[in-house]
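Hi Y.,

Following your request, here is the sequence exactly as I used it, all 497 residues.
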Amino acid sequence: MRSIGHFIGGKEVKGTSGRTADVYEPMTGEIQAKVALASKAEVRAAVENAKAAQVEWGATNPQRRVRVLMKFLELVARDNEALAELLAREHGKTIPDARGDILRGVEVVEFALGIPQLMKGEYTEGAGPGIDLYSMRQPLGVVAGITPFNFPAMIPMWKFAPAIACGNAFILKPSERDPGVPMKLCELMLEAGLPPGVLNCVNGDKEAVDAILDDPDIRAVGFVGSSSIAQYIYQRAAATNKRAQCFGGAKNHAIIMPDADMDQTVDALIGAGFGAAGERCMAISVAVPVGKTTADRLMEKMIPRVESLKIGPSTDPNADFGPLVTKAALDRVKDYVEVGIKEGAKLAVDGRGFKMQGYEKGFYMGGCLFDNVTKDMRIYKEEIFGPVLSVVRAKDYDEALALPSDHDYGNGVAIFTRDGDAARDFTARVNVGMVGINVPIPVPVAYYTFGGWKKSGFGDLNQYGPDSVRFYTKTKTVTSRWPSGVKEGADFSIPTS
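Below is the corresponding structure, written out as tokens. Let me know if you'd prefer a different format.
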């Protein structure tokens, strides 16, 4: 059985806390590895390595820093299939989906290659008599990222690539459920030429998280996970004078207007609602058809599509989605389905009884489709994070617009329509951070930025894109005057131009 430690100071080291967690193979239900859970002392060892390495790395010119990322991209491409297979084996998503996980991370690394341009400061000659003014962006020092199980390649790269390109050293604390790929990414960064200690990976649970939040040498922390933990991390980071960008849960709505192309809409809902077994923070979990006729048409087409979803092991190239990540996750989703039934929603498709032949101990579940869900139900208000789609019928456009706008979460939303006026009005008025128009999963490209509103996001700056440069750097402004032509004598008034 594999034993997974930590990556500190440029090498994998064994855990010393004496605590471990099981890493499962979701498609078989078997334990495939033991991962060490870091103590406060082990986190501190990683920070000390990072702090020592950051001084020289921060002084390295930006072009040389991004050349390491260029080489890293070559190595990820070289090992892409092995990374995808490892990711699928630990997470449970299909190998094609795992490749997409890696690619969306790679796109942010590609964006980070342009960070030297974005780190340029400003300059004003003659801001006052004989005075020049300029600004510069400098790295924060040691920063950290706490990343979730559902994107074990993408989100670590979203975090560490911009931070390292800006000259920081990075402490990564990935999910203990699937730590294999984050550890491999650290190894590839070292192979690409990153100095030892600039990128460290500590595996662990709440003890490691709290050690990161309380460490005085860590200047910023980014997080992706559930909203309750996002809020906890944001508040505790603020209490220790850290910058924080914390992204939480979601309840992403898809508004279906009467004029929508129903076949294309159903295709979009099937992929966005059930891909990766619904374990995506940008999954569509609520469909909102406008008007009874639209709702009836939607259900008529959705029911046979959900019933015919192909569930299989991660290695099945024809599977629509694979198992959930753990048995606890599977049980949680099934419990929510039972809650929905008790609340009075109509379970039009029940996938709870699905069993995978030859993989009976795997964490599999078929797709579930609810109709007649109302906004007071728990299955509407809370994030389920599984292959469950709820249909909430809206009598008109205004009611449909109000549903995502009034919801506690505000990550993503989509509208399906042929009406440009309706789409434009919806985009302007909906109270959600990311909007798709006939696009079911509106994850922006890497040179924009990703972030939700309300309980889906805590902090002023979003992930990747230009916001990542602002988050991982501090601005220093210099007012410069040289003695030539300066009159003697003290001036007690406030300086003006």
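The chain has a mean pLDDT of 96.

Thanks again,
Q.
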